[in-house]
User: What shape does this take?
Amino acid sequence: MELLIILLIPLVAAVLSLIHTKKGKFAAAMTIIAAFSVFILSLHIAIYPHSGMAQNTPGIKGWLSCNPLSALILLLISFVGLTASIFSFGYIGDAAKKVGSGGVRRYYARYNLFLLSMLAVPMLSQLAMVWIAVELTTLFSVFLVSFEETAESLEAAWKYVILTCMGAAFALIGILILYRGLTIAGGSAFTWSELIAVSPNIPPLFLAVAFLFILIGFGTKAGLVPLHTWLPDAHSQAPSPVCALLSGVETTTALYVIIRLLPVIKVIPNDYASMWLMIFGLVSVGTAAFLLLQVTDYKRLFAFSTIEHMGIILVAAGLGGQAAHLGVVYQIMAHAFTKSFCFFAAGAVLLLSGTRDISSVKGMIRTSPLAGVCLLIGGLAIAGAPPFAVFLSEFSIISAGLAGGHYLVIALLALFIVIAFCGIMYRVNKMVFGRPSGCCPQGLSLPFTCRLTLLLAIVPVILFGLYIPGHLHNLLRLAALSLGR
Amino acid sequence: MPEKILFNVIQVVVVMLFSPLIKGILDRLKERIQSKKGPSIFQPYFDIWKLFHKDEVISDESSWIFRITPYVVFIAPIFVTLLIPVLTDYPLFFAFMGDMLAGGSVLALGGFFATLAAIDTANPYGPMGASRTRMVGFLAEPVFMIVFFTVSFVAGSTIPYIVQQAWITPFANFFSPAHILVILAFVMLIIAENGRIPVDNPSGHFELAMIDESKGLEYSGRGAALMKWGGCMKFFVLLCIFLNVLVSPWGLATGSSLWGLFCAIPLILLKMFCFILILAFIESSLSKLRLFRITEFLGFAFVTSVVAVIIQILEL
Amino acid sequence: MAQLNALVGGLFIITVFGIISVRQMLGGIRLFVLQSILLAISACILGVVHGSIHLFVVAGITIGAKGLLIPWLLYNMFSHEIHARREITHVINIPSSLLIAAGLTIFAYFVVHPLLGIDSTPFIKVNLPIGLAGVLLGAYAITVRREALPQLIGILTMENGAFFAGISIAPNMPLISELAAAFDVLIIALVIGILTRKIHKRVGTTMVGKMVSLKEK
Assistant: This one.
């Protein structure tokens, strides 16, 4: 029942956001309240398991259900949804002069719908419905990307919608073929649990073809190379809170579909699925690492880092085995928290400096200590420096791979990660330290809500590198278990 | 045996006699659609008659090719007539002399000579038309080949008499996608090969824009008559191949009686009339394509024929 | 029945080729409508064969959403574009484009060929490869076009292709997913339409191919 309520809250909030009020803060407040209640409910689902979390949390039978992995994804989405909504309060309030109060209200309505579609992805148990939900995440977020309505943001939105819709059609073919396989194997309902149950009876060829289509299709949405070209554009042109959602969790929801298919595609002989996952993953990590070396826009920097992390998750999924699976879920969590924090920091810098150009931002730590420190911590954390969460997850993936004997893959992965680390730190270093350039007008300070968000979002980034609460650790372990057969 | 030879001769006579009529009807139809009165449907006969009674002028600079071309152009369709079902649905005496590819190559021979003759006199418009015809020709060639491949793939033969039976036994074959698509592609081919709109405007009088017509500009008198008549027969023969072999063998004489054969003549003409009605409609509703767009037109015909093959393979 | 379906399949793929090669925006929309009608016909044929009412509903939805509503939307949103700009450009010239498309069709056939070896009815044999070819060719149409509306039609073609395959391989999919998918297609058309208007208002053209400011230096 909580699952249904989680879906209803953003829907109600979306409708309420459109109400015209005098001061125009109503929609923002509404959204924050909605996001907060969704977060509390998700936390409840994730932390207080109903009679053994290994079983699916009962939802509405056959339509909504929640297993540990989806509970984790749900938690991530709702957390980033909450922080981003608080960040929006100050950030979008700033833009209200440009777009008018109608624009702001529409922003919050779309924001809630976008949140709704993302929350639906891990909860729906029918694969066909999951596809539709993933497609809706694109469609509801298009106008969030083009919020500023500059030529660049419109271009980014165009690329975003066209490429991801293209990918969605491929994924649809894959899902239909999978459904055919399910029917051949005697399955009746097209749900995750049924699929996993009958997958040994599905002809492997069907699984293989379906898997490739789904990998390409949802891979487009997750920003896998070579269909990644929209991602740096959309993730850099959107308003920063939206970037945090897009980069932090939207890509993850697309990846979630692929990850959740792992137990199904394991039955394909010859490690077929692992091979493709590792190839796609490594190509993505490699390409992103080298592209990271030549970006000039700091939001694009973090966007490319998203591609890199998606690749790492895919490689880890391809490695297989319990340890690697734990690495997968850990990496998903670490990336979502860290990347959204990075974009909040980048948003703060953008608010202060008014430019996205790396070379014109210098000495951030002196201009605004809070933004500077946050940018530094975000950069370090996302690049994978100890003692942050990403370091731990990458480390566990690498050690799992070495234990599994995939030396070449791990060597390449490690090399790319190091290159990416250098790329990110070189830029962030230049922005944070040094003599302040004259770009930032003095006396400009961050809105209160932005500062609050930064403080909120930094908690998991620092905390989970050092200590993971028992409940959460349990959830991660169960989620990793659900990826194996 | 002797009556089969006789029937073959009757077929040839029918083609020779009625081909100008079909052209006359088509011209008239087009004029009528444009709300004009139009010439009599017997106008091509009058033209040919008139041309036979005129003196022929031949350029001193031209070679023997120019002189024999009208005869080649005239005889080529007659040869093809011997190979294909015009009136009967059973093979006649010469039917196994060659298959559809042979028929195609005989028709192409006529075209080849017409091209050479157009260059021969060094009239500036002749070579221009000739080169354009060649361009259309070799764009149409692959479509021809694919259509024939599809046909032979379905029927297991390229002898027209065997092919025509394959489309209707069993009757459901008539609606097979390969059949419909081949028909579509072939209609486009007929349009391209005979210089109809949208590829070429047969009634245009502007030499620079001509494709097919400009090749015969140098002929006069008997030569012109033979060229004209040959052109009519080529059109008629192509229609026969299309209607009797590719579309359906209905309306053809089945028995070996002379009476049945004569009954078949009006039926064939009726079929042709139906088709040229469609053709006149197509021609009237489209405008002529620019020269470089012809590749697109024929490219589309090519794709259609390729799809026919693919569907045929899919269905197996 | 199987042959009739195959005929519909053949015509369907020809409309896809048409969408790749057509030069006029209006022609593109008309071909898309025709294509949707063919999809609906195929759904009806399969509905008769499988004796399932809900394929008829799919056919009805297809006609309603893609045959009427989306064209109506497009006519209204792009009325200026449709009538003012008759010739739309192509990245590759059309004959070679058609050849590549024919190659892609054959490729689609080879992709699904092994599947047909395991499980095939006369309907799957035709619909699955043609549907996949529709998806691939739709993607190809998007890449060779530089204009907003043709790219949108490419997307819709891809969806049609996926559905064309879907009605044969998943005839008993829950109806609600079909409904939701039709709804989804509508939203795609609407969202892209609105986005195009915004681009037109801001940039002054719908030549989205000309927008190349975002890239790595």
